[in-house]
Amino acid sequence: MATEKSESLEMELLSCPVCYEPLIRKGPTGLNLQAIYRSVFECMKCHKSYSSKDIYLDLTVTAGLKKYVEVKPAGTEFFRRPFVSFIYERGWRQYFGGGFPGPDEEFKMAQEYFKPAKGGVLVDVSCGSGMFARKFAKSGTYSGVVALDFSENMLRQCYGFVTRDPTTLLAANLALVRADVSRLPFASGSVDAVHAGAALHCWPSPSNAVAEITRILRSGGIFVGTTFLRSSPSTPWIFKPFRERIHQTNTYLTEEELEDLCTSCGLTNYSIKVQQSFIMFSAQKP
Predict the structure, then answer these.
(1) Whole-structure pTM over 0.70, yes or no?
(2) Which of 280, 270, 197, 265 is nearest to 232 (CA)?
(3) At 182, is the secondary structure helix, strand, or coil?
(4) Residue 230: pLDDT above 60?
(5) What is the DSSP secondary-structure string of 211-232?
(6) What's residue 62's pLDDT?
(7) First-last CA distance in the chain
């Protein structure tokens, strides 16, 4: 699907989150940590500049602001906490219940859906500490992988895990980007695949996020996500009202609502795999 050379990926892929215009890079080429760390990016339209902060590239609208501080919803702020980011991949994410099959099996399932995107660019939105982004990068399936999250501390944890495998991952086309899922810093129609593992129920507005994902996908691009269902066919009817109350703090959807959300954003070929409260869904941009 993707025929661009890796040296030109950053010029056509990364865009200003304010006006979505392509970024001009000053520095070494390459969609990898070391090249991005030594680069400065500037919007060719509004001239706002972006640079690598610590070990990730900050492409949020608020990047570089000195006085204005924006507080996100409690669910978003929760994952920005250092302790939460630290424990996420140290026993929490690996042992999700409710039918989640485990990271290795979940990765294999996603890879099956992503077969049409082989050789293209994959963005792992709300990547957390990068568990799946690293798997995608190490697979060699994609010309570039972007690990994207709003949490600075999650991205720092991801970098820490990357440095444990310097031979493979530091040399891989793997970039760490801080961004808002409702304002993705990519040109329209520039991405071949988007993954969102156990993320949708944490988004302040799933409809805005899926609309953004649809925008950045190329024609034929694949979106694969996993989440917890609010209820499933296996949920006894007597328990459904209680699950509704328990899940009020997050956006847990039903199978029907997920399909409606994807199709209303213009995605087609909707497909699902369900196990208890776990659902993996896939959809394609026409």
Answers:
(1) yes
(2) 280
(3) coil
(4) yes
(5) HHHHHHEEEEEEEEEEEEBS--
(6) 93
(7) 14
Taking residues 222-232, what's their average pLDDT? 89
Q: Which amino acid is at 50?
A: Y
Q: Is 82 helix (H, G, I), strand (E, B) or coil?
A: helix
In this structure, the dihedral spanned by the alpha carbons of residues 163, 169, 175 and 177, taken in order and rounded to 10 degrees, is: -40
Q: State the Cα–Cα distance between residues 180 and 152, nearest whole angstrom.
A: 11
Rounded to whole angstroms, how far apart are CA atoms 146 and 163?
16
Contacts of 73 (CB under 8 A, 6+ apart): 204
The residue to which tokens 């980007």 are assigned: 177
| Whole-angstrom Cα Rg for the chain | 18
So what's the pLDDT on residue 158? 97
Nearest to 174 by CA among 213, 136, 210, 209: 136
pLDDT tens, residue by residue, 161-213: 999 988 889 888 999 999 999 999 999 999 999 999 999 999 999 999 999 99
Contacts of 269 by beta carbon, 8 Å cutoff, 6+ apart? 282, 283, 284
